[in-house]
What does this fold into?
Amino acid sequence: MAFEKKIGRRNFIQTTAAALAAASFGVKKLGAVSPEAASRVVRVHSAGATREWDYSANAPWDHTVEPRDGKPGKISERHFDYINDDVVETMLERGLRELTDTGSGAEALRGLMPGVAPGQKITIKLNLNNATFDPEVTNHRMDQTMPLVNALIGQLHSGLGVEQKNITLLDASRWFHPRIMKGRCRFPNVNYVDSRVKDRWDKSESVVFTKDKPLPGGDFWMPKAYTGADHIINLCIMKNHGCGITGAMKSHFGSIPTPKKLHEGLGDRSYIADLCNTPSIRDKVRINIADALFANWHNNVWCPRPWKTFPEPSPNSLFLSTDPVAIDSVMLDHIAEEVQAQGDNASSYVRDCLNHHAFLGYAMTEHGLGVFERKPYSRIDYRLLEV
It folds into this structure.
């Protein structure tokens, strides 16, 4: 591991202090939520979250739907058309309640976002890493799905009275497809910030890199929709990657101008932890919600493959936590268990990805961003909720 080091008395004290800070991560941001819930991770599961999708008809799962670049398409169905919106709304509301020990989704969000009011600005970070940048191509690679986005905006708008014009959906390095994203949003007056918005960076706030320095020539500013927001909600996806898990923390690569500069060494370097320690992210992200309705144990690009370690071939789950390190730790364990269960279906590359997650330990010990722990958990309060 890139961050392994000998622990002397001084380092032991520093590490212990950081771990204690991590154990109470998020308390100052949780408002009415109890400190005991700070590193709680809730998984909400419902067998009805998705309708049965024909995985076999979509094998080998590394293709686009429409013909492109001279290559034929496969079939016309897309996994994100097989999500039950009403069930996802129920799952989100129940997950928020369980996470915060409150009686309603609105009460939960009010506790998570101190001082939230209709006029405050809320930015929702989405993961659209596989956007096509072509309105005629609506492939079914792994990206954020709109049912969860709609459910969250509904809680904010209907439950808390936040005006649509004060809600911004953001993936600053990618693109919102006009049909499969914007066309499916039930709230017409929200804002969108993607790569087509020219004036989107605030150069007064940039990532400060600590242990590792990225390749030269990169820009690592924060979006204005982060620095100008009162609250940020991080929506992410449970996927494998070169860092083992591209969940809550690495999702913010989509929030900086040149994330490519941070991919060398990826999970073995301090980049992801340093990014998440930037004030706008560290101090304003109120909750991390992972879309694992389908998810991908194989990689971070192509459409989902069937799972063996969940009750159904699709995980049919949402993960929620105020602790980005804890939620990524839990999802890393789920992916590791799945890769093990897949046996020869998982390539050596997929297996090796799971060995490069040192950024999680660094985020805990050096920045106090949360609790990194592998199963069995003693400091992470991991709860499964059936809906």
Q: What stands out?
A: The beta strands are 40-45, 122-125, 167-170, 191-193, 201-206, 221-223, 231-239, 285-296, 317-321, 381-386. The radius of gyration is 20 Å. Residues 1-33 have pLDDT under 50 and may be disordered. The chain has one domain: 9-386.
